[in-house]
Amino acid sequence: MNYLSFAPSLMLEILKIAESKQKYYGGRKNKIVIEERLLMTLEYWKDYSSYRVIAKRYNISHTSCIRNIFWIENILIKSGIFNLPGKKDLTKNKGTNNNLLAIDATETPIERIKKN
After folding, report:
1. pLDDT band at residue 9, thresholds of 50, 70 and 90?
2. Tens digits of per-residue pLDDT, 49-58?
3. Which of 70, 51, 46, 71 is nearest to 62 (CA)?
4. Residue range 62-94, pLDDT digits in tens
5. Residue 103 in domain
6. What percent of the residues of the chain are helix, what percent strand, and what percent coil, each to the nearest 5?
7. Would you put residue 80 in left (φ > 0), alpha (ψ -120 to 50) or beta?
8. Residue 30 domain-assigned (yes or no)
């Protein structure tokens, strides 16, 4: 099954269920709605901007931005749907036709301005 075609809506459903369970016991309301928090997390994953820049866009504090992104990441990981397979799972089924995910993590030197 391909989850990528409806991943944002599935993420949103999982987060709404988790938030309703969390708010059942009371607590303070979040300043921004769950849809904006998910969008904020997806923007962070896409650009890897600093938390301060993202917090400024959504008019929240730096620590609130960190807390929201960590909470969403933890809920999505605990759901088990959005986990990448580990190294053991990839090497275990060598004879079968598996999809392989390759991540380019090469380092590039920083271009600095040369002083006179």
Report:
1. confident
2. 889 999 999 9
3. 51
4. 999 999 999 999 998 888 887 766 777 767 766
5. no
6. 60, 0, 40
7. left
8. yes
Domain that holds residue 59: 3-92
Is 112 domain-assigned?
A: no
Number of domains in the chain: 1
With respect to residue 108, please indicate whether it lies within any of the assigned structural domains.
no
Report the 10 Å Cβ neighbour count for 51.
18
For residues 95 and 75, give the distance between their C-alpha atoms in angstroms, rounded to a whole number.
33
Closest CA to 22 of 67, 58, 66, 87: 67
- Tens digits of per-residue pLDDT, 93-110? 665 555 666 777 777 777
Q: Which of 60, 59, 74, 55 has its CA nearest to residue 15?
A: 74
